[in-house]
Each structure stands twice: as structure tokens, then as C-alpha cells.
Amino acid sequence: MGNLADTTSAEPDDYVGSAQTETVQLTEREILESAATMLEQVNRTLLRIRQGVRNECENCGTKIPKVRLAAIPYATTCVRCAAEAEGTSNDEPVKQRPKPRPPKVREA
Ligand SMILES: [Zn+2]
After folding, report:
1. How far is the CA of 77 from the centre of ligand 1 (A)?
2. Measured between alpha carbons, how far is 33 from 59 in angstroms, rounded to an integer?
3. 16 alpha carbon – ligand 1 mean position (Å)
4. Model confidence pLDDT, tens digit, residues 1-45
5. How many whole angstroms from 53 Cα to the centroid of ligand 1?
6. Which of 45, 50, 73, 92 has the least C-beta neighbours within 10 A?
7. Domain limits of the chain?
8. How far is the CA of 52 from the centre of ligand 1 (A)?
9. Does the reported pTM lie above 0.90?
10. Helices within 1-108 (DSSP H only)
11. Residue 19 burial by Cβ neighbours in a 10 Å radius (0-12, 13-18, 19+)
12. What is the 37 CA–ligand 1 centroid distance (Å)?
């Protein structure tokens, strides 16, 4: 093994100073509110597990995919119902605009 090129040694010192992470200031009330919401979700999930309906959508009864439960362990609705609740249903066809297609150039 030869010497590794020492390219990492030339690190400017003042770069570190500007790399501070942004701190999000939450008010005490916001923290309490989000904690209460989380607690409620956990309790609800525990109850659903006990009832054996954890992977059932509480709105339409559809099976909630494992992937969704893995991503959001406290999810109580399927993706569709969650989207509808948020008013962002994906089912409604959005106005389709004709996209300008780039001309395909084939070279022989
Ligand atoms: Zn549903």
C-alpha cells in the first residue's frame, strides 16, 4: 500500500463555524400539544393492537399495508382515507396539461 494522498488535510477552519445546525424554537405549549397528540396516537394504537384491528383502516376497513404501518406506526387509516382527511385526495384527476415533448432524435 502506498501513501494516501492527503487531500483532506486542507480544510478551511472557518467552514466549521458556518455549519451550525438551525435550531427550531418551540414554545412550551407547542411541545405539550405535540406530546399530547403523540400520546393519544400511541394509546390508540395500543388499543387497536389489543383489539386485533391494528392493520384495519378505522374509516373504511381496508387493510393498511405493512409498509405504511412501518413508516407510520400509529397510522389508523389507509393512505386513501388519510389523504381524504387531509383534503389531498389523489383520486381526483388533476387538470392535465399537454406537456411539450422534446423532439426525439434518433441517430442511425
Ligand atoms: Zn380507509
Report:
1. 5
2. 25
3. 48
4. 555 555 555 555 555 555 566 777 889 999 999 999 999 999 999
5. 13
6. 92
7. 28-86
8. 17
9. no
10. 14-17, 28-51, 66-71, 79-86
11. exposed
12. 21
For residues 66 and 36, what is the distance between their CA atoms, to the nearest angstrom? 26
Which tens digit of pLDDT belongs to each residue from 74-105?
A: 899 999 999 999 886 555 555 566 677 777 77
81 CA from centroid of ligand 1 (Å): 4
Ligand 1 centre and the CA of 62: distance in Å? Answer: 5
Q: How far is the CA of 72 from the centre of ligand 1 (A)?
A: 15
Q: How much distance in Å is there from the Cα of 76 to the middle of ligand 1?
A: 9
Task: Tell the CATH superfamily of the 28-86 domain.
Answer: DksA, coiled-coil domain (1.20.120.910)
Cα Rg for the chain, rounded, in angstroms?
A: 25
**97 CA to centre of ligand 1 in angstroms:** 30
Whole-number Å distance between alpha carbons of 22 and 19: 9
